[in-house]
Design brief:
Its EC number is 2.6.1.44. Homotetramer. InterPro entries: Aminotrans_3 (IPR005814), Aminotrans_3_PPA_site (IPR049704), PyrdxlP-dep_Trfase (IPR015424), PyrdxlP-dep_Trfase_major (IPR015421), PyrdxlP-dep_Trfase_small (IPR015422). GO terms for molecular function: alanine-glyoxylate transaminase activity; pyridoxal phosphate binding. With 436 residues, the chain is an alpha/beta fold. The chain has a domain at 73-327: Aspartate Aminotransferase, domain 2, CATH 3.40.640.10. 37% of the residues lie in helices and 16% in strands. The protein contains 14 helices and 16 strands. It has a seven-stranded mixed beta sheet, with helices on both faces. A hairpin with a 4-residue loop joins strand 12 and strand 13 (377-378). It starts with a helix and ends with a helix. The protein binds 4'-deoxy-4'-aminopyridoxal-5'-phosphate.
Length: 436
Amino acid sequence: GPSREEVLALRQRYVNPGVLTYYREPLMIVEGAMQYLYDETGKRYLDAFAGIVTVSVGHCHPHVAAAVKEQAGTLQHATTIYLHPTLPRFAEKLASKMPTGPNGTPLDRTYFTNSGSEANELAVLMAREATGNQHVIGLRNGYHGGTPNTMGLTAHGTWKFPSNAPGGIAHTHPGYCYRCPYDLAYPSCEMKCAKDVANVIAYETPGQVACFIGEPIQGVGGAVLPPKEFFGIVYDAVRAAGGLCVADEVQGGFGRTGEHYWSHQHFGVQPDLVVMAKGIGNGAPLAAVTTTEATAATMTKRIHFNTYGGNPVSMASGLATLEVIDAEGIQENARVVGGRLKEGLLELRDKHDLIGDVRGLGLMLGVELVTDRVAKTPAKQEAADLMELAKERGLILGKGGLHGNTMRIKPPMCISKDDADFLLATVDECLGIIEE
Ligand code: PMP
């Protein structure tokens, strides 16, 4: 194949320079096999970022790869204006994995799109249509996509363009205890941050809202995991203002948090709409919004169309992925190996002053680095150095968070205990070098 230099030169010449790459010297990947990636020299990396939390059951998992190949060779494309068998089969399988909506109402009506951004746009559209209200409440520090409305919902300046400012969107606190905006501590805070959503509704909306949308565990925002009561308080306030509740499960769904198939179940809440992408298709461009029969019916008032939404190859990939999650005990593995990782990271926190906070559930973990534990000064440079040093040692980590100082650990859920130990030993060694 072409050399890394040739690929880099072609990309620099013909690709928009705004397309993001990681690392000081962008890494070239030519092959993937389960939890590992290989560069052009054959060097192996443990992929602790799973693409971007996309590859849920493993790179090129044989069952998923075979299903995609078979579908691509039989019927690669048909839009939803025709019937084809794979779409409803996958929709039925997905419905069998859905949680219940409010008061036990089934969530079993799905609309397929290609990306999380499109799915979130659609969820907001459905909520607005269903309620007749316009205003949407999001969480500070959240990420919901890069299209106009979702860029507005995304609540961090890094991801916004000043030329794009959609209206009718307000943000409330995310329950980020490590950086509590009131300098309080849980539980004596009595969930002041969650209760503040009533003020946001009162002061920043007409008092009636279309919906609330939130990631039960923030992904890009750095594994922010609020206390268990958080979403119950927020959902109640939003419903009292006539709004629906949307759970963005793009990163936290499909067993990743270990204890539950859906991350919102950790909080004991029942959303009206669930948005999915990334892990649902193991890397295929596939996303979905699933809701109740009544809310779904509001989409028949006008025509909404998505050319590639529900295409046979993505459907086949999604169906095979969900089958693997069931057949291979993937959720249980996320719980067990994720638990071991978190324990190990907490031990590293005792050893390394750079680690300010370790948080998350299952295989959705965050390690926030600080240069001063009392002031909680974000260790932005150190986080970037850790990424580089880990890469040299064959470990790919993710990075994000409010200040770009949170390491994001979300490997394909097939990761083994030995992989977890390698990850911990590598992070330990790299932090030691940075602290020298
Ligand atoms: N929601 C969440 C929680 C995400 O993490 C992302 C992507 N990082 C999106 C939505 C947007 O998905 P996409 O990039 O597929 O449009």
